[in-house]
Amino acid sequence: MPAALRAAHALADDRIERIEVFDHAWGYTLSRIFDRERNEIPEVGAAIDRMEEYEAEAQKVFLFPEIFCPSPYYTYWFGRVGEVYRIPGVFGGLPDMFRLRARGGRSGGVDIHLADLSRPEEFRKAFEAETGQRASLGLGGLLAKADVATLLKERGEFKTQARIWLTEQMWLWDKEFFGEHARNQFILREAPRTHVVVVQGGATPVWNTYIAKLIEALVRAEENKALDYCVLLAHSPAVEAYGKYCVAREPTLKESPEFQDGGVRAIGEKLLKDRLSKSTHIRTLPDHHFPLFQEVYWAADMIYSRGGGITANDATATLTPLTIVEELGQWQTEQIRELYRLAGLSHTVSYMTFIEGEYGIIQMYLFKDKEHQQIMRNMARQPSHQEIWLAKQILEV
Fold this sequence. Notes:
Layout: H1 2-12, E1 19-22, H2 26-33, H3 35-40, H4 42-55, E2 60-63, H5 71-78, E3 83-86, E4 97-98, E5 110-111, H6 120-134, H7 148-178, H8 187-190, E6 196-200, H9 205-223, E7 230-234, H10 235-249, H11 257-276, E8 282-285, H12 293-297, E9 302-305, H13 309-317, E10 322-325, H14 331-342, E11 347-349, H15 351-366, H16 369-380, H17 386-395
Parallel strand pairs: 1-2, 2-3, 6-7, 6-9, 7-8, 9-10, 10-11
Antiparallel strand pairs: 4-5
Helix pairs in contact: 1-4, 2-4, 6-17, 9-10, 9-15, 10-11
């Protein structure tokens, strides 16, 4: 993003507006993570200085809410850019309709019934109508309904519909991943009320090791009939993590045709397919079948994740209880974890508990239904669909 701002300035000078929409600032985040290295290693210091210089090319900045874009970022941007605004809530939220995709895996799935964004006049009228219809009572912002109780009730109804959609999509993915004769169907087809957790790990060494070990522990638990909930993992990080884990344990895999052709990822794809082929409770989520995580979150009972800004936004927008793991050395995600804990928007798990607990920690938090209801109530108080507000601001530039 900083480089894109510099490129826009170089190519167009001041003939076009340079607008930044962000949940942090790379210059500030990296300076907090590499504070000592910045002063001791000239190359690191020069790289961060250059990033800060590029970010100063923005003319107008829209930052996400305080809960996942902490106030130091506002101060950072305000010192560099003339106009800095807070987005008053989260992107996305309760859709007007959950449209089931046809078998064939086409994109879409959620239809919010907005006007044609390419026609500013039509969009402004739609925005005004939306504001009038959705203005909440004492909650602020654009909400699908005026009170928290109604939101929670409708979230439950969408959860049922989203699980039908998720089952259909998984049917397509199973055929693609395991082949035409996939042996075991996804558990939600037979037991739609099964608890569902989405594990949304970052592509870091700690998470890579954790996800690979988690998959092994979950498969063993299912083989012993001790897994009574469903686990969904993002496909690419899971494949990468499992490939690295298996190659580290069995170095001779580097001599295999798969490794020669596609490296760690190809090994991970092959071995993960073999490992999950008999599972009914463990699945991965590839981008081409599940491009929007909010669609998946509607079907989930909990998200288990690091404190990433986008994950926090999507969990809050979909009123999906969040359990955030401590991530040592990651300043931004640690700020979000603490803010979400203080606001009653998530559970929180320490680093040592996360590393040592495997799937038992997930199980411990997944069935805290009473606490989840309170987290969902707190999430429902956050204004949603603020992409409508942002689009209006940009249209006025």
